UniProtKB/TrEMBL annotation:
Alphabetized Gene3D superfamilies for the sequence: NAD(P)-binding Rossmann-like Domain
Superkingdom, natural source: Eukaryota
InterPro entries: Ubiquitin-activating_enz
Entry-linked SUPFAM superfamilies: Activating enzymes of the ubiquitin-like proteins
Protein's recorded name: SAE1 enzyme
Gene Ontology molecular function: any one: ubiquitin-like modifier activating enzyme activity
Length: 116
C-alpha cells in the first residue's frame, strides 16, 4: 500500500491494518523543500552479497602493506539478513526525554519533526 497527501490519523490507521495483515506499507509527502518517507515492510528478509576478504601471508612479501587485508572482488558470498520494521504509530511515539533519545536526536533529521 502506498499513501501520499493523507492526514497523520489516516496514515496510522491504514498502517495498523497493513501491519496486522503482513502487507507492505509506504507513505510519504513533500512540502516545498522538505519531505518525508516511511516504510513498514513488517518482517523483511533479503540476501546481501559480500566481497570476501583475503589476508596476505606475511612471509611472502615485506613492507607495511603486507598486514593489510586485501579484497578479492572475484569471490563473493551471499549473506541472508532479516529486518523487522516498526509500525508508524510506534515510530511517531518516541519519548524524546530519555538518555537514549538525546543521543538519537543528533542523528535524527529535522524533517522528522515536521511530520509531528
Amino acid at each position: 500500500v502506498c499513501l501520499t497527501c493523507c492526514s497523520r490519523d489516516v496514515m496510522v490507521k491504514i498502517n495498523q491494518i497493513c501491519h496486522k495483515n503482513s502487507v507492505k506499507f509506504f507513505t510519504g509527502d513533500v512540502f516545498g523543500y522538505h519531505g518525508y518517507m516511511f516504510a513498514d515492510l513488517g518482517e523483511h528478509e533479503f540476501v546481501e552479497e559480500k566481497t570476501k576478504i583475503t589476508k596476505v601471508n606475511p612471509g611472502v612479501e615485506d613492507g607495511p602493506d603486507t598486514k593489510k587485508a586485501k579484497f578479492d572482488s572475484s569471490e563473493t558470498t551471499m549473506v541472508k539478513k532479516r529486518v523487522v520494521f516498526c509500525p508508524l504509530k510506534e515510530a511517531l511515539a518516541v519519548d524524546w526525554s530519555g538518555e537514549k533519545a538525546k543521543a538519537a536526536l543528533k542523528r535524527t533529521a529535522p524533517d522528522y519533526f515536521l511530520l509531528q
